[in-house]
Fold Sodium transport system ATP-binding protein.
Amino acid sequence: MIEVKQVSKRFGDFTAVRDVSFRVEAGEVYGLLGENGAGKTTTMRMMATILQPTTGDIEISGFSVQRDPVEVRRRIGILFGGDVGLYNRLTARENIAYFGSLYGLEQARLQERIDSLSRMLDMEEFIDRRVGSFSRGMKQKVAIARTLVHDPDVVLLDEPTTGLDVTAANNFRRMVARMQEEGKTILFSSHNMGEINKLCKRVALIHKGSMRFAGTLESMREQYGIHDLDDIFMAVVEGSEN
């Protein structure tokens, strides 16, 4: 479970996130929508305890990011968009294993998880190759596996299908659906409204640091009288109910 409670984040005179609140239930895939610079990544960085809220609080599985950051970090897996942050001189397996070792996974369990994720993400052909020569899509698969290797209860995914081809993106969406069946709590940030429509029943939309909508996709369609999610997104961002 994730509960964001009246969270704001200021950097000097600039307010990146202002009084944002929403709740993600256990076993739910919840969409976080917004343009680049809207405050999505800042919000997710606060969830991951990388940034501290200026005001408000966030609870992950009942633990506060401000009072219990270590407990929060034990329970989450986080994938940020942009640079995947892999070690180019290490193989894909070594990159994933290094991250898993930070969570104290025993060697046998660690290799079992790597092999399982390698099969699910179709990485078997390059799992033991150095990542320096990998394509963007191959690196993204390794970053996803690194995020999930310790089998976290709460998964934060910021634009996770960036760089993936159609087949790989479909495989990843099936993996997300499988994790939901296992009861994991998943926050899914994406610009792809098709992905949101397939994976999420409820969403929050942030624009210029403030909440513009939180609720079900069905209620969003009803409120704006528009079926297409891209058109709804633009109507919310522009503050218009076309």
Observations:
- The chain has one domain: 2-237.
- DSSP finds nine helices and ten strands in the chain.
- The mean pLDDT is 92.
- The first strand starts at residue 2 and ends at 11.
